[in-house]
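Researcher: We plan to redesign the surface later, but first we want a full-length starting point. Tokens attached.
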């Protein structure tokens, strides 16, 4: 973790917290509801800064993981119920009509949603969107063992994910983990297959869960491992392997199956060296390897050719920003499919603040910072709408119940529900923080 990563995280969270709480603050003021406190970060015990202006105390807490507004006459995370024992005053939250209380409660998530929309629109207009275009993967994809277990095959051309066209490698690698089915072009025919959850579990256990497929590339020797039999036999850097025992090899992913059939045997490796064909006998080790690393300049060039940037006019960027916001929200919802699945065990990959900070760029990157801020804004909107007491969604549920039945939930029920919700959230935070610390200590980030 670097100071630059920490700075970017705190800056992003500060922007999100201030605007989220303004989403509650502004409608509360419009409906003439007293706001006692407006705080960036939490202040258990003491605050770094505080100043009272009018009826509201503004401050900065010392615990940089959120913030809050304290609205008079409302049961919140402070659990200050003394005021609620007194008769309701007209300037209190509990005295306001249910529809006004609902707007105040939904103000934060509304701001989060529109903030993400604005940022994504601005990024699409100013920078465009850069990605590796799956339509340019002319030879299809090369798939890891975990990806093959999911159902993919070497040479597949990805067409659709859950019936929607797949265009971008960066989003497709994530979307396929949450998908029910994928459509590919395989040996000239469209094939639709269900995603195997056991394969998803294996992908999540990879060092880079997004690296389960890539462009196909020729088998060009980029380097040798220690004590390489291939190097001893006479293979050289830049050699292009085109055959094993007279069987043609077009791509690097076709090499492993042939070598696995010849463990501990000597094979005839056909190569092109400076476009001149040669044959060299090489001993395959007991793991079915030649002890070479494939890649090379040509493979990098082929991958670079799939990179493209799509630009948007001002008019196009606005609906595009909305589409990106909805796509991120949909992805956040879908991820629970693997997080709470006992097969995929995605909960083991859940990261808290430390994990998130570690993923921030190590150099100041404003585009990446704003992209993260937009994504996290959508996440906060979704998280706060979960109907758990202690979150905005819990208050919304109780208010909707009152609007539907015409009867308010009793103060005692609200107090007990809030206490249970806060205890649950504290326990969840402790679990996530604990997992982060263990990963940090063991070097598993």
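Model: Full-length starting sequence:
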């Amino acid at each position: 973790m670097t100071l630059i990563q920490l700075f970017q995280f705190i800056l992003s969270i500060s922007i999100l917290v201030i605007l989220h709480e303004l989403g509650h603050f502004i409608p509360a003021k419009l409906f003439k509801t007293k706001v006692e406190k407006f705080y960036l970060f939490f202040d258990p015990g003491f605050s770094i800064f505080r100043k009272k202006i009018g009826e509201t105390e503004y401050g900065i807490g010392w615990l940089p993981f959120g913030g809050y507004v304290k609205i008079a006459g409302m049961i919140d995370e402070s659990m200050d119920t003394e005021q609620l024992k007194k008769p309701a005053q007209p300037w209190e939250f509990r005295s306001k009509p249910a529809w006004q209380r609902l707007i105040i409660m939904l103000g934060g998530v509304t701001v989060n949603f529109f903030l993400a929309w604005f940022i994504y629109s601005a990024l699409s207009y100013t920078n465009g969107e850069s990605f590796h275009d799956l339509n340019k993967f002319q030879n299809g994809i090369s798939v890891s063992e975990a990806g093959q277990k999911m159902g993919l095959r070497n040479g597949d051309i990805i067409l659709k994910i859950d019936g929607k066209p797949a265009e971008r490698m960066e989003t497709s690698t994530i979307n396929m983990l949450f998908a029910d089915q994928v459509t590919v072009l395989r040996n000239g025919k469209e094939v639709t297959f269900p995603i195997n959850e056991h394969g998803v579990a294996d992908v999540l256990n990879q060092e880079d869960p997004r690296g389960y497929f890539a462009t196909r590339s020729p088998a060009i020797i980029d380097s040798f491992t220690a004590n390489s039999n291939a190097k001893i036999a006479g293979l050289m850097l830049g050699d292009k392997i085109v055959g094993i025992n007279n069987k043609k090899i077009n791509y690097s992913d076709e090499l492993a199956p042939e070598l696995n059939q010849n463990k501990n045997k000597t094979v005839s490796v056909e190569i092109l060296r400076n476009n001149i064909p040669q044959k060299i006998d090489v001993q395959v080790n007991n793991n079915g390897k030649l002890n070479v690393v494939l890649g090379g300049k040509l493979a990098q060039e082929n991958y670079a050719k799939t990179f493209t940037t799509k630009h948007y006019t001002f008019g196009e960027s606005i609906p595009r920003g909305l589409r990106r916001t909805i796509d991120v929200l949909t992805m956040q919802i879908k991820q629970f499919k693997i997080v709470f699945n006992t097969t995929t065990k995605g909960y083991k990959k859940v990261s808290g603040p430390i994990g998130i900070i570690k993923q921030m760029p190590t150099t100041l990157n404003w585009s990446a910072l704003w992209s993260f801020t937009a994504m996290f804004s959508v996440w906060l909107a979704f998280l706060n709408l979960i109907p758990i007491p202690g979150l905005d969604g819990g208050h919304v549920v109780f208010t909707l119940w009152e609007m539907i039945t015409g009867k308010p939930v009793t103060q005692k029920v609200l107090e007990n529900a809030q206490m249970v919700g806060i205890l649950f959230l504290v326990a969840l935070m402790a679990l996530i923080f604990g997992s982060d610390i263990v990963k940090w200590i063991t070097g598993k980030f």
